[in-house]
Amino acid sequence: MRKSKSTGKLRALTRRPMTQDDVFDAVFVAGGVLSPDAKRAVYVLSETVGVGGEAQQCTSLWCVELAGGAPRRLTSARGSDSSPRFSPDGRFVLFVSTRAKVPQVYRIAIDGGEAEQVTTQPHGVTQFALSPDGRWLACAGLDAAPKPRAAAEHPRITRVLHRFDPIGGWLHESRMGVHIQPARGGRARLLVEHDGVVTALVWAPDSRRLAVGKSATERHREFVDGDLYVVELDGTRRAVLRDAVFGAVFWTSDGRCLGFTAPPDGDLSRQQQLFVVDADRDVAARRGARAPRSRTARLDRVVGVGQQMHNPAALVASIPIPAEDGRDVFAPVTDGGRVGIRRVALYGRESVVSVIGGDRVCMLLDARADRLLYSVQDGNAPPELYTATTSGADERRLTAHNDAWRSRIRWPELERLLVRSARGLAIEGWVLKPTHRRPPYRTLLYIHGGPHSAFGNCFNTDFHELVGAGYAVAFANPRGSTGYGDAFSTAIVGRWGEPEMRDFDKFLDTLIDRGIAHPDRLGVMGVSGGGHLSGWLIGHTNRFRAAVPEEGVFNLLSMYGTSDAGERLIRLEMDGLPHEVPDRYWALSPIAHAHRCRTPTLLIQGETDIRCPMEQAEQMYTVLKRHGCTVELLRLSNCNHGPQLFGPPALRRARMNAIRQWFDRFVPGS
Predict the structure, then answer these.
(1) Within its chain, how far is the Cα of 159 from the centroid?
(2) How many domains does the chain have?
(3) In what order do the strands lie in the sheet with 92-97?
(4) CATH code of the domain in which 504 resides
């Protein structure tokens, strides 16, 4: 029976703008793996469990048949179950769970039942890898549990890189090593000593070697430097890369090479490329010394998911996965606001072919036989699970966890804009328009961090909460953003704030000229690098009625010495050391211009943030307060760099309540 037009209109009217409670009713596909026969998938679902201060963001495992049918829950959501891996025969799934006191590896039959614990690492497992033959389990973990500082303890520091934000503490107290044990359980033996952070753990196809990435060790000077080893089962090893910047690591199907993602020459301002290096290379002995070769040098786009994402799927590792023919690899590629999947040739002439695309973010999760497994999200839809053939045909949506939830929400209109900025540059941007309000709207300019990152077609929960509160949320990728080529992303080196301000002015002027944004009802906000830019803007213009710079960089001189990323990142971005270009460091610091600011400003900062330390916000607060600006500083307890965007529900609620109340106070409504 056909539905009448009046019924459709009534249903549209009964939908409501999103509230904060609605945000926490959404669920997110946050990882997945294909069975060996590529007939089913096990995936990770992230959901909020509990209410109020007791709420937790939990993950559980689900199973779905690729041929169709309803997904079924494989594990409960009592804690966090993640990182599923099939046994070679497809009968069991191994995964990491927090159901014990510390994370351990468990095993469960694919048909269900009780999970059995496989590892007994005293301080837990941070990641694991199952050998292709199913015999061995390699596990990374800490040599000591993090502990609170006793009153009588006084650390004495001798190493250059001594703190690391993802760990949240002192590197000499949080050292990771690698153990190996039988996959069905048994005694574990130390394979790689405890030192620094284990960043990669991948078995070779022959199950006789491991690729192990280590960073932040005693000998490393900078936060992105790392070593990549090939480790034999007897513990002997050789360094394939040393003091290098590298990301996702994989073996080629024939075992001859290792692949990895990295910016060329370790330059963090450039687009990440895909490289291959001979697995028999030995940096120390200078054997097999052929340098790593880029397979995407001409692409001039980011190999990987180069977007800032404000939802629990931000923690998903979307990495290159070799094709079974051994000649190619499938990889996510960021092109502007889109993330698609491409097939990259590993040998011969450089070749990059699009397989999966569209105005969306497709996060590659696995590839087996003739099937790809990936999640798909866009600006108005959280990630769900999809599959297609390796040629991109026969795309199927496998899950619909959010359909009923989405049917209750009155969704904003998402409009993409291309704005001409300086020298004819095209700046890509978007605006989420509240359909329950009339234009011109109160509009918030939301600025991404990085600074070499981007916004795009991903689902950002905080955007939608603000839209539900009656704001249009505008976001753009100014110069410095990734996904538009090296010339675009490196344009801000030594010039932080100056090119971006011109790009944002053009973007906002366009929104105003088109009747979308009200010129007297503008606010600005941003996180990390976006905190720097929002702090920069309010020192140079009075067009904003309120500002919320968050986890920002406000004094580049002190940031160089206090941030775990300072020595490498700030030296690169300022194109020199502090004593070489001190005037540049000061001139590009928002604190140097904050005395002119008259914009009511709420600074938000994590107490345990090591990437952009609290002292940055404290300095900005002091200057603004001294010169009569309305300013407050919200200090988020037990918060390092980023979890307020996708972490514990209580933390996310506290942050968003403060932001919403600040803008409601100073940005007038219609």
Answers:
(1) 28
(2) 2
(3) 81-86, 92-97, 104-109, 116-117
(4) 3.40.50.1820
Same domain, yes or no: 483 and 615: yes
Domain membership of residue 612 (yes or no) is yes
Cβ 34 vs Cβ 386: under 8 Å:
no
Six token digits for residue 216:
């932040």
Could you tell me the two tokens for 618?
């404290």
Whole-angstrom CA distances from 222 to 58, 374, 494, 563 are 33, 33, 20, 11
Q: Which residues pair with 607 in a beta bridge?
A: none
Residues 599 and 472 in one domain: yes
The three-state (H, E, C) secondary structure of 123-162, written as one string: CCCCEEEECCCCCEEEEEEECCCCCCCCCCCCCCCCCCCC
Residue type, 653: R
Chain position carrying tokens 């996965």: 321
Structure tokens at 312: 């629990």
Tell me which of 270, 294, 318 is where a domain ends. Answer: 294
**Bridge partners of residue 524, in order along the sequence:** 445, 547
Residue 1: helix, strand or coil by DSSP?
coil
Q: Is residue 105 part of a domain?
A: no
Beta pairing class for 302-303 and 321-322: unpaired
CA 453/CA 476 separation, integer angstroms: 11
State the pairing for strand pair 136-142/116-117: unpaired
Tell me if 475 sits within 8 A of 56, measured CB to CB.
Answer: no
- 393 part of a folded domain: no
Per-residue buried b or exposed e for 456-473, using 16+ beta carbons within 10 Å of the residue's own CB: bbbbbbbbbbbbbbbbbb
Contact criterion met (CB below 8 Å) for 139 and 125: yes
Of 261, 294, 327, which residue is a domain's last?
Answer: 294
* Per-residue tokens: 77: 């959501």
CA distance 62 to 53: 27
Q: Which domain holds residue 462?
A: 412-665
| Residues β-bridged to residue 237 | 231
CATH classification at residue 267: 2.120.10.30
Q: What is the pLDDT of residue 4?
A: 45
Residue 99 φ then ψ, to 5°: -65, -25
**Phi then psi dihedrals of residue 655, to 5 deg:** -60, -50
- Nearest to 473, CA basis, from 496, 442, 452, 450: 442
> In the numeric block, which tokens belong to residue 327?
């000649």
Closest to 165 measured CA to CA, from 207, 224, 219, 94: 224
424 and 553 belong to one structural domain = yes
pTM, two decimal places: 0.95
The Cα-based distances of 437 to 6, 256, 299, 433, 667 in angstroms read: 22, 59, 42, 8, 15
Q: Which of 188, 192, 234 is nearest to 217 (CA)?
A: 192
Q: Running along the chain, 670 residues long, what does each successive block of 10 average in pLDDT?
A: 44 81 95 97 95 87 96 86 96 95 95 92 95 97 76 78 76 88 93 92 97 90 89 95 93 95 94 96 74 96 93 87 93 97 96 97 96 97 98 97 97 97 91 97 97 96 97 98 96 95 97 98 97 97 97 96 89 95 97 97 93 94 98 92 83 94 91
Distance of CA 107 to the CA centre of its chain: 28
Considering the domain boundaries, does residue 238 fall inside one? Answer: yes
Query: Distance between terminal CA atoms of the chain?
Result: 42
